[in-house]
Amino acid sequence: MAAHGMSFQMPDCALEGYLIECSGGLQTHHIINRGKARGNKKVRQELDCDELTIKICAAHNVSRIADTKEARAILLRRKIDEFGYDRMKNKIDGLSWKVKHQEFALEAMLEAGRMK
Ligand SMILES: [Zn+2]
Q1: If we measure between CA atoms, which residue out of 8, 14, 10 comes closest to residue 52?
Q2: Which chain residues have CB less than 5 Å from ligand 1, an ion?
Q3: Which of 19, 31, 37, 113 could cross-link 69 (Cys pair, CB 3.0–4.6 Å)?
């Protein structure tokens, strides 16, 4: 019964090691804040995808550290590693914003979060 003997590895917080210690359970974080899509149900649903959500610990989520430009760039780079640049760019460029948000272009978000 090998399957029963295998230990389950908890996935780590995607921001582990960034500014503060991790603590608490993992939570789903939206890389582009759903508050930006208030009143736009379609975009709110589109933001709920594997490419734009990521697991982070409660400490990183609740402290809002994950919402900083630098943290967002870290999370986007992890997603680019996972899914590839083109898929991430297509996903982000394809969001159904009513008004175009230049600050949410993939390159703009990566650039804004470049560590000084
Ligand atoms: Zn954490």
Answers
A1: 14
A2: 13, 15, 22, 57, 60
A3: 113
Measured CA to CA in angstroms, residue 17 lies from 14, 68, 74, 82 at distances of 9, 15, 12, 19
The rounded Å distance from CA 58 to ligand 1 centre is 7
Q: List the helix and strand counts (H, then E) for the chain.
A: 6, 2
Separation of CA 14 and ligand 1 centre (Å): 7
Strand partners, 56: 27
pLDDT digits (tens, 9 = 90+) for 80-114: 999 999 999 999 999 999 988 899 999 999 999 98
CA 60 to chain centre: 12
Q: Are 66 and 60 in contact (CB under 8 A)?
A: yes
CA of 1 from ligand 1 middle (Å) equals 34
Tell me the pLDDT tens digit for each residue of 45-62.
999 999 999 999 999 999
Q: How many A from CA of 108 to the centre of ligand 1? A: 24
